[in-house]
């Protein structure tokens, strides 16, 4: 997935919330988006999910199934928790029972008949997670997913992130408190006043490793990355036309 020169402002006179962001995300990547309040994290995540359209620039090769969990679950809807998940299953062309495994795993059964507006923040957050996971997402976007979750439920997030990336999905997660900055293998994208800096693994072999460069057809790149990772290889990056987008436009640093 390529982020190409993304600029965004909320209205014609508003200041830029995002300024020329350039980045790439490969299948299996976990990307933690860091930065202080107002830096542009939610804006970038909404652009990634396709909820907002860039004012300038574009996003290429976005996976077809996107799971999106907003920072604030839109609870002012006339549904019970179960009714909402059934409606969302129908929207995705799934039977109502598609929600059952998530209702069980996220402990939502006791709240099934509660109107969305009456749910606690943490339970509403879990309903938001369940709807995002009804169909295995190729891209999962989580905006501050810990907000309101109790300690027991917080461990679910890294579990779910790992399941999605193991299946070849990309996860983008914002984290203004730095709670999962240390998620194993996660890359960091840091925003400051709308400017994005990405970090990535340097193409430096460990002692008994060699680097093998492989060219694949654009439409086969995602599958190739998944296969290489499944075979136990480390994928160091995805480049286009011999130059990575990051090499052209952003600082490359080592973070893992
Ligand atoms: N709906 C909106 N309309 C107008 N301006 C907005 C809107 N949403 C965000 N902004 C502005 O865009 C800038 C980036 O905001 P954004 O919410 O993306 O930051 P953030 O890093 O996610 O912050 P936080 O951690 O507080 O959620 C800020 O200046 C913010 O005031």
Automatic annotation (TrEMBL):
InterPro entries listed in its UniProt record: AAA+_ATPase, ABC_transporter-like_ATP-bd, P-loop_NTPase
Name of one Pfam family that matches: ABC_tran
Record's keyword annotation contains Iron: no
Keywords: ATP-binding, Nucleotide-binding, Transport
Domain ABC transporter: 1-218
Domain of life according to the entry: Bacteria
UniProt-recorded Gene Ontology molecular function terms: ATP binding; ATP hydrolysis activity
Record-stated family: Belongs to the ABC transporter superfamily.
Protein name: ABC transporter family protein
Organism: Actinoplanes lutulentus
């Amino acid at each position: 997935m390529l982020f190409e020169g993304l600029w965004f402002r909320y209205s014609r006179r508003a200041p830029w919330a995002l300024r020329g962001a350039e980045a790439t995300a490969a299948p299996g990547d976990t990307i933690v988006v860091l930065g202080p309040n107002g830096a542009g994290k939610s804006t970038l995540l909404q652009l990634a999910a396709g909820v907002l359209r860039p004012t300038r620039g574009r996003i290429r090769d976005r996976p077809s199934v996107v799971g999106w969990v907003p920072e604030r679950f839109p609870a002012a809807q006339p549904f019970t928790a179960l009714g909402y998940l059934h409606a969302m299953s129908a929207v995705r062309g799934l039977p109502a029972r598609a929600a059952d495994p998530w209702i069980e795993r996220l402990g939502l059964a006791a709240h099934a008949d509660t109107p969305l507006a009456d749910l606690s923040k943490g339970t509403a957050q879990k309903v938001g997670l369940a709807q995002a996971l009804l169909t295995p997402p190729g891209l999962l976007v989580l905006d501050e997913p810990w907000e309101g979750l109790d300690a027991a439920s917080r461990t679910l997030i890294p579990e779910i992130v790992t399941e999605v990336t193991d299946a070849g999905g990309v996860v983008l997660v914002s984290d203004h408190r730095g709670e999962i900055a240390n998620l194993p293998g996660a890359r960091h994208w840091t925003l400051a006043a709308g400017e994005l800096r990405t970090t990535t693994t340097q193409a430096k072999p460990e002692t008994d490793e060699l680097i093998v460069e492989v060219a694949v057809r654009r439409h086969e790149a995602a599958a190739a990355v998944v296969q290489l990772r499944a075979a136990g290889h480390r994928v160091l990056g995805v480049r286009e036309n011999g130059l990575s987008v990051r090499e052209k436009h952003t600082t490359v640093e080592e973070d893992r």
